[in-house]
Design brief:
The complex is a heterodimer of chains A (167) and B (596).
Chain A lengths: L5 H14 L9 H12 L4 H11 L3 H10 L11 E6 L2 H5 L2 H12 L12 E6 L11 E3 L2 E3 L4 H19 L1
Parallel strand pairs in A: 1-2
Antiparallel strand pairs in A: 1-3, 3-4
Chain B lengths: L4 E6 L2 H5 L2 H14 L6 E6 L11 E4 L3 E3 L7 H10 L26 H4 L17 H6 L4 H9 L2 H11 L11 H10 L6 E6 L8 H8 L1 H15 L3 E6 L4 H16 L15 E6 L9 H8 L23 E5 H13 L1 H4 L10 E8 L5 E6 L4 H8 L9 E6 L5 E4 L9 H7 L7 E6 L4 H15 L5 H18 L7 H15 L3 H5 L2 H9 L1 H10 L13 E3 L8 H5 L5 E2 L7 E2 L9 H5 L5 E3 L1
Helix pairs in contact in B: 6-10, 6-13, 7-8, 7-10, 9-10, 9-11, 10-13, 17-18, 18-19, 19-21
The chains are: A alpha+beta (167), B alpha/beta (596).
């Protein structure tokens, strides 16, 4: 997903050209970055230059925006993004145990990707599923009422599914 | 022909997690099997707010609410309820009957009986993805009323009469805000809906949009008419994909039906709404920061004045209100500001939505009239604390709010009372805390959040919260010093007074309020090196008592081999190697391990 192709570049350019028809085109920078991240899984530095050129905004400004917002990744991410909710309700119900268990199991720190590029571990602000705290989100699927033990089992399930696919 | 039955299945995240989608398939299959497809309709609703009882299925007519159903229950429900018209009693969620003065359909369940739903009035009742459903519950009638018979001034007067105050947290009078923006003369004006719900533990904006997006759109459009704007923008968190999808769908449907776009409903008023996504910055909930973010810049606040109502988005007069505030508008227009102002207290009118979570039986979204006490919310609606634990505190207002102990349980919910008690209304997060939580650690948790989210623009917030966090960390690690408490108070008050925006001004609140109400816990941490809740691991020791039967379970589970002992003899923990992970404590079946 993360490789840069001409086709993707063209898509970005087409999108920016459409935006340029709108009033205040510069205000769509964050929308463009969302689109870029949707394509590559992160916001590659090279693409920032492309966006800068097309939108006529200095790369430095784009860099400033991309680094300000937590949502944008500046490095490639793993196949599955594991976000541990660190909202208050989850915290009170033991989110930290779940996070520690994940760190041990995956062998990475928060924000890092496993060596096999299968998982990226992230902390999330409230995911809004406080009723089933503590929760984690793997890609866009929510898992709730987790414990340090059940979360490890969950990771095993994903590993197994990935192993089956490649085998 | 038999009367038609309507099955409403909750499609909120919790119910989805609890298998509601599989249940839906099973229901459809079962209904088909009985040949009932023609006379039974299934539709999905947004979050019904009864998360702890999920998955929820409501069958009409009869308003039977089923909870905690599984796929195995489906044949019985279809056979008994839909074929024989006999509700399956064992699955029905029903407690004592309480009359609900506003929406009788929810009045039968205690959880709903104490509530009064205005902002969330359609959530869980209509299909959020169907504009026809919304129209059937008087949807867009308020907009029609405004466009056909009310001048912008009359609309503002109505909102003023209602006494509605901003639901985003600060409680600024909405009508006044509208008035100021309307008085500005400019060729362009903007209306913004703040859906950047960042408070950990609050999810009412998400649910309001997921459950009833048209209400929010209708409110925004009315606001646009009142101040003379041509464009509305919903600024929503990118972390809410379902809400974004439903909003997009609702906007498209409104445009198709002539409820957005040029000459709405044949009037001279033209207005359109656009969605802009946030990108995960808590500070963007602050209005000036939010505006900069929409402009495509870093979301950093700027000093006010000038207020957005004078100089906002793209330098033009801008009206910003929170999702919940907008959701109240159609009701105020339809039922009148006078009626609205009969609900609530002297200074705070209407209702407030709270996200009730933490150590309480019924977690979920609730909407109560202003003036309801914390006790009613926690014990009547919330059903009290589970597992026989003792109530310790309730945290309101998220990371900007405070912790209130038992003495404040009879505090009425309104802007002034909560502020006087040392907390805030905030966006409406309400987390119940029991004796198992350490207040120092909780304050540290909140401060970690605000420190991380501080945009770095002003020094008190950037540097001050950092220093406070260092002191708190030191205290929780058992290295607290004499004078730390006073230093925290001094720093906290300084940050509160000197920070640029609401984030910084309220960041010390969790620390200051716990210092005020739970000072003894801080003192215990510092002077006795003790954490009464057993949360701060450096201050806890685990010991094995004579209750130990020598089963060896703790020895096997210990990750650092710190436990030794022969079979059927009392085991011992080596305190030198123990890392205080607590695994032995949770593993022991004989209560032989104690925390001290």
């Amino acid at each position: 997903m993360s490789e840069i192709t001409q086709e993707k570049l063209d898509q970005i350019k087409t999108y920016i050209n459409r935006i340029k028809q709108q009033p205040y085109p510069g205000s769509y920078l964050i929308a463009v970055l969302h689109r870029v991240q949707g394509m590559f899984g992160y916001v590659p530095r090279e693409i920032m230059d492309v966006v800068a050129e097309e939108m006529n905004i200095p790369t430095a400004h784009i860099w400033g925006v991309a680094t300000f917002y937590h949502y944008f990744n500046l490095k490639p991410i793993g196949k599955h993004v594991v976000s541990v909710c660190m909202g208050t309700a989850c915290y009170v119900k033991g989110a930290d145990d779940v996070l520690q268990a994940l760190k041990r199991e995956l062998g990475v720190k928060v924000g890092q990707t496993t060596e096999d590029r299968l998982f990226t571990l992230q902390e999330a602000r409230c995911l809004g599923a406080c009723g089933i705290a503590p929760v984690i989100m793997i890609d866009d699927k929510i898992y709730g009422e987790l414990t340090a033990k059940s979360v490890v089992e969950l990771i095993h399930r994903y590993r197994k599914a990935a192993g089956e696919k490649t085998a | 022909m038999r009367a038609k039955s309507i099955l409403t299945l909750c499609d909120g995240p919790t119910c989805i997690h609890k298998n509601s989608r599989v249940i839906r398939e099973a229901l459809e299959a079962e209904i088909c099997k009985h040949g009932l497809s023609e006379e039974v309709g299934i539709h999905l609703s947004g979050c019904l707010g009864m998360c702890s009882k999920g998955p929820i299925l409501i069958i009409n007519p009869g308003y039977t609410i089923y909870g905690g159903i599984t796929v195995e229950d489906i044949p019985e429900i279809v056979q008994e309820h839909l074929v024989h018209r006999q509700p399956v009693a064992r699955l029905v969620v029903q407690e004592d009957h309480l009359y609900n003065r506003f929406f009788r359909i929810f009045g039968d369940v205690d959880f709903f009986g104490r509530q009064m739903r205005i902002a969330l009035r359609n959530c869980g009742i209509i299909d959020p993805e169907s504009i026809d459903d919304y129209l059937s519950v008087r949807g867009y009638e308020a907009l029609a009323k405004v466009l056909t018979g009310m001048s912008p001034r009359e609309v503002i007067a109505e909102v003023k009469k209602a006494g509605l105050r901003g639901r985003g947290g600060a409680g600024f009078p909405t009508g006044l805000k509208w008035d100021i923006t309307a008085r500005e003369t400019s060729d362009e004006k903007y209306v913004i809906c703040n859906a950047d719900e960042g408070d950990p533990g609050a999810f009412m904006d998400r649910s309001a949009i997921e459950g009833d997006p048209h209400t929010v759109l209708e409110g925004i459009t009315i606001g646009g008419y009142a101040i003379g704007a041509v464009k509305g923008i919903v600024y929503i968190r990118a972390e809410y994909p379902l809400a974004i999808k439903r909003l997009e769908k609702a906007i498209a449907a409104a445009r198709e039906n002539g409820l957005l776009g040029n000459n709405i409903l044949g009037s001279n008023f033209s207005f359109d709404i656009e969605i802009r996504l946030g990108a995960g910055a808590f500070v963007c909930g602050e209005e000036t920061a939010l505006i900069h973010s929409i402009e495509g810049r870093r979301g950093m606040p700027t000093p006010r004045p000038p207020y957005p109502s004078v100089k906002g988005l793209f330098g033009k007069p801008t009206l910003i209100n929170n999702v919940e505030t907008w959701a109240n508008i159609p009701v105020i227009i339809l039922d009148g500001g006078e009626w609205f102002s009969t609900v609530g207290t002297e200074t705070s009118k209407g209702t407030k939505v709270f996200a009730l979570a933490g150590k309480v039986h019924n977690t979920g979204l609730i909407e109560v009239p202003m003036g309801t006490t914390l006790r009613e919310i926690i014990y009547d609606i919330g059903g009290g604390i589970p597992d026989g634990k003792k109530f310790k505190a309730v945290q309101t207002g998220g990371p900007s709010g405070g912790c209130l102990p038992e003495d404040y349980l009879d505090t009425q919910i309104d802007y002034e009372s909560l502020a006087a008690a040392g907390s805030i209304m905030g966006s409406g997060g309400m987390i119940v805390i029991d004796e198992d939580s350490c207040m120092v650690n909780l304050a540290k948790f909140f401060l970690e959040f605000t420190q991380d989210e501080s945009c770095g623009k002003c020094t008190p917030c950037r540097g001050g919260t950092k220093r406070m966090l260092e002191i708190l960390t030191r205290i929780t690690e058992g290295n607290g010093k004499e004078g730390d408490i006073e230093k925290l108070e001094r720093l906290g008050n300084m940050i509160r007074k000197a920070s640029l925006c609401g984030l910084g001004q309220s960041a010390p609140n969790p620390v200051l309020s716990t210092l005020k109400n739970f000072r003894h816990e801080y003192e215990e941490h510092i002077y006795q090196k003790k954490c009464r809740a057993g949360i701060c691991s450096n201050l806890v020791t685990y010991e094995i008592t004579e209750k130990c039967i020598g089963c060896g379970a703790c020895r096997r589970v210990c990750p650092v081999n710190a436990i030794a002992g022969k079979r059927q003899e009392q085991h011992v923990i080596n305190q030198e190697t123990c890392i205080k992970c607590g695994q032995c404590f949770t593993t022991c079946k004989f209560d032989a391990i104690v925390k001290a």
